[in-house]
Each structure stands twice: as C-alpha cells, then as structure tokens.
Amino acid sequence: VQLVESGGGLVQPGGSLRLSCAASGLSVSSYAMRWLRQAVGKERELVAVISTVDSKLYADSVNGRFIISRDNVKNTVYLQMNSLKSEDSGVYYCNALMSGYWGQGTQVTVSS
After folding, report:
1. What are phi and psi of 13, to 5 degrees?
2. Are strands 76-81 and 66-71 parallel, antiparallel or unpaired?
3. Which of 73, 78, 85, 108 to pair with 17, CA 20 to 30 A apart?
C-alpha cells in the first residue's frame, strides 16, 4: 500500500495550492480519507476528512478556504487550498482512517 502526496510548494499569502494523494494497493472509496498537517514544533493536526459517503469535515481554521475531494476513478484524494495564510505552512499528510497507512508528506510554505 502506498499513499503519495504531491502538490506542495512555496506560495505567497493569499495564494492557492492543490494537494494530491494518489493511492495504490488501497481503494480511497473504501476509507474515510484525511489530510493532516504538522508545523515545526507543533503536533500534527487534522485539516479535513471526507467520509465514504462524501461527508466532509474541516478544521475551524481552514473552513471556507480548503476543499477536500476524491476521485474514485483516479484513486486520488485532493485538498484545494485557497486564501493561504502563513499559519497554513507545514508538512501535509494523507491518511486512510483506521488503515494505519500514511503518505510521506508534502511541504507547504506560505511566505512572501
């Protein structure tokens, strides 16, 4: 099983990025899929979850700015991040809930 995140990078405040989490050996449609992030010196925190029936939950800090979605044909989960702030910086991880599988993370840096 592999979860491979991509799409991170350096972006200015107010900008956008779209993260992807491509899965192999695991069907993203069979799991609640999560995005979490970890900033330097801080604990990993939940950013967004999409359930198997497409219910979505967001952290208060990103609600209204981030959108989680899933493409079952491509077996990929996405995180569209808009109106980015410096406090959104960190390593973003993809996880299939209750599977024990994690991606390696992708770095997001929001800075002018």
Report:
1. -55, 140
2. antiparallel
3. 73
Please state, in angstroms and rounded to a whole number, the distance separating the CA atoms of residues 93 and 40.
14
Q: Which amino acid is at 103?
A: G
Candidates 59, 52, 64, 56; CA nearest to 92 is 59
pLDDT tens digits, one per residue of 74-87: 999 999 999 999 99
Instruction: Give residue-wise pLDDT tens across range 40-50.
Output: 999 999 999 99
SS (H, E, C) the chain: CEEEEECCEEECCCCCEEEEEEEECCCHHHCCEEEEEECCCCCCEEEEEECCCCCEEECCCCCCCEEEEEECCCCEEEEEECCCCHHHCEEEEEEECCCCEECCCEEEEECC
